[in-house]
Amino acid sequence: EEKRLSALVWALPMVLNETDAQLALVGRGNQREPLEKLAARIGVAERVRFLGFVPDEKMPQAYAAADVFAMPSVAELQSIATLEAMATGLPVVLADAMALPHLVDENGYLFPPGDVPELARRLITVLKDGDLRERFGKASRELALTHDHQASLARFEQIYDEVTR
After folding, report:
1. Could you tell me if 119 and 72 are in contact, meaning their C-beta atoms sit under 8 angstroms apart?
2. Residue 117: exposed, middle, or buried by beta-carbon count in 10 A (0-12, 13-18, 19+)?
3. How far apart are CA 114 and CA 96, in angstroms?
4. Which is nearest to 86 in space by CA: 41, 148, 131?
5. String of DSSP letters for 110-160
6. DSSP secondary-structure letter at 74?
7. Residue 125 belongs to what H/E stretch?
8. Spatial separation of the C-alpha atoms in residues 133 and 110, rounded to whole Å
9. What is the pLDDT of residues 79-130, one digit of tens each?
10. Residues forming beta bridges with residue 111, ordered by sequence position
């Protein structure tokens, strides 16, 4: 529920007015049935793919099939999924909530949580502009590299050292 994936389903009809998009959802959360019903009710069921659980070793293929990664969640503390998508070179469209704003620089867009028309506008912008997608994708990869485990641990150690002085 906290991932707010329904926002992506609600945005899809607006996105389809200007692009030939599909929405792929990965995972086996408890919202699949309500999301399937919503997609059917608003007429986009044939454009929504529920991939279910995808093992870690297959996730790069899922990301490679995408043109953009979107995360409408309001509860991300770090968002490993977003970092993984960025590491594969995907542009991002993320809710302006919790840790997500720290993952957007020159690699995508933020949108106000729950603002479905703005989410759709941002997705359309990225999907319709191949040069922008490429530029954002390269920036995503570079930004993701700054979040590697060793760099993060070194930063935590630095913070702890400063606090204990």
Report:
1. yes
2. exposed
3. 10
4. 148
5. EE-TT-HHHHHHHHHHHHH-HHHHHHHHHHHHHHHHTT-HHHHHHHHHHHH
6. S
7. helix 116-128
8. 15
9. 899 999 999 999 999 999 999 999 999 999 999 999 999 999 999 999 999 9
10. 95
Yes or no: say if 128 and 113 are a contact pair by the CB < 8 Å rule. no
Positive or negative, the CA dihedral 11, 13, 19, 21 is: positive
Model pTM greater than 0.85?
A: yes
As a residue count, the chain comes to: 165
* Cα gap 43→111, rounded to integer Å: 24
Closest CA to 101 of 153, 93, 123: 93
Tell me how far apart the alpha carbons of residues 51 and 33 are, in angstroms, rounded to a whole number: 13
**Cα separation of 10 and 8, whole Å?**
5
43, 113 contact by CB (below 8 A): no
Q: Which helix (H) or strand (E) holds 69?
A: strand 69-71
- What is the distance between the alpha carbons of residues 68 and 119, in angstroms, rounded to a whole number? 12
Task: Render pLDDT for 131-165 as a digit per residue (tens, 0 to 9).
Answer: 999 999 999 999 998 876 666 667 668 877 888 88
